[in-house]
């Protein structure tokens, strides 16, 4: 068929390949989740249903795209690491970013009722996405350490903040004032002395975020024992994932900052 006189417009579509031989990190972040969490009455400071829902959506992504070798989630965000040699969509940036973002978002909506039961979804949640390329293992490891350090700092602050408000009877502005200028050790001390809470005994999911890898770890390293009864456990998600693709995706709540994590999984950064 002859090329139509309109076809030249195609030439305006420029190629957008990602640099070869670089690690690809895709970070998705809930848009205006401050509002979304209020409207859907998320528990404060952490809503386990919401966190498990995002873990499940991230597992869906890893099941679908084998180039994703690691994911880390906290709060309303998820980061995905694609291997250095990833050939997904010929490394076309817009294709990768738009497909991963919409797949993740669709999974969150698709699985909403599994985690939120009769609580209706009031409006469509949306996620923004970005791609960052890292040239070496050092930056990749520091990237994930950065996100997990963020989890720690935010969760410690939020845990003390909501203890002051919910158990201590302070207003939110009083709680902000109480915490102003405090160091990490002050917050630990305040939690323990006023509320008898040992921060280190709080659910590792909240303190460390979720780390998704493609291998089977001993059951003790997963965090399925204390799941809400009506909600699929990490182990159940992993089992389902195993049925579809091997090796299974598992949800861990471990220290990604430590050498042991990376030393024990050389395949993640192998290329
Ligand atoms: N109550 C509650 N709120 C949560 C939870 N997880 C995330 N959020 C909310 O989501 C926000 C996520 O932070 P941001 O991504 O910086 O804020 P945002 O409102 O999503 O804004 P943008 O990302 O810039 O669109 C938090 O500040 C909380 O308000 C949760 O488990 N419980
Ligand atoms: Mg957000």
From TrEMBL:
Residue ranges occupied by any tRNAHis guanylyltransferase catalytic domain in the UniProt entry: 7-135
Keyword Magnesium: yes
UniProt record, GO biological process: tRNA modification
Substrates-to-products reaction catalysed: a 5'-end ribonucleotide-tRNA(His) + GTP + ATP + H2O = a 5'-end phospho-guanosine-ribonucleotide-tRNA(His) + AMP + 2 diphosphate + H(+)
Residue stretches making up the Thg1 C-terminal domain: 139-258
Gene3D superfamilies on file: 3.30.70.3000
EC primary class: transferase
Annotated binding of Mg(2+) 2, by residue: 29, 76
Pfam families in UniProt: Thg1, Thg1C
Cofactor(s), by name: Mg(2+)
InterPro entries according to UniProt: Thg1_C_dom, tRNAHis_GuaTrfase_cat, tRNAHis_GuaTrfase_Thg1, tRNAHis_GuaTrfase_Thg1_sf
PANTHER family, alphabetized: TRNA(HIS) GUANYLYLTRANSFERASE-RELATED
Designated name of the protein: tRNA(His) guanylyltransferase
Organism lineage string: Eukaryota, Fungi, Dikarya, Basidiomycota, Agaricomycotina
């Amino acid at each position: 068929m002859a090329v139509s006189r309109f076809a030249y417009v195609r030439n305006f579509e420029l190629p957008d390949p990602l640099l070869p031989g670089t690690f690809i990190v895709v970070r998705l972040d809930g848009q205006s989740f401050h509002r979304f969490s209020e409207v859907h009455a998320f528990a404060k400071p952490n809503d386990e249903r919401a966190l498990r829902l995002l873990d499940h959506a991230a597992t869906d992504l890893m099941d679908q795209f084998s180039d994703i070798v690691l994911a880390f989630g906290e709060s309303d965000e998820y980061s995905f690491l694609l291997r250095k040699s990833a050939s997904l969509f010929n490394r076309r940036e817009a294709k990768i970013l738009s497909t991963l973002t919409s797949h993740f978002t669709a999974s969150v909506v698709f699985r909403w009722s599994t985690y939120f039961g009769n609580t209706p979804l009031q409006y469509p949640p949306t996620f923004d996405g970005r791609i960052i390329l890292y040239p070496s293992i050092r930056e990749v490891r520091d990237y994930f350490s950065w996100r997990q350090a963020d989890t720690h700092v935010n969760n410690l602050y939020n845990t003390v903040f909501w203890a002051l408000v919910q158990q201590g009877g302070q207003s939110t502005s009083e709680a902000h004032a109480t915490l102003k200028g405090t160091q990490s050790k002050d917050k630990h001390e305040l939690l323990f002395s006023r509320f008898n809470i040992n921060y280190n005994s709080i659910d590792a999911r909240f303190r460390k975020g979720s780390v998704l890898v493609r291998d089977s770890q001993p059951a003790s390293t997963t965090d399925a024992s204390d799941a809400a009864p009506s909600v699929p456990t990490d182990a159940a998600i992993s089992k389902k994932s195993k049925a579809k693709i091997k090796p299974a995706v598992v949800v861990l709540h471990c220290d990604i900052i430590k050498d042991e994590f990376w030393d024990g999984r050389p395949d993640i950064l192998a290329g």
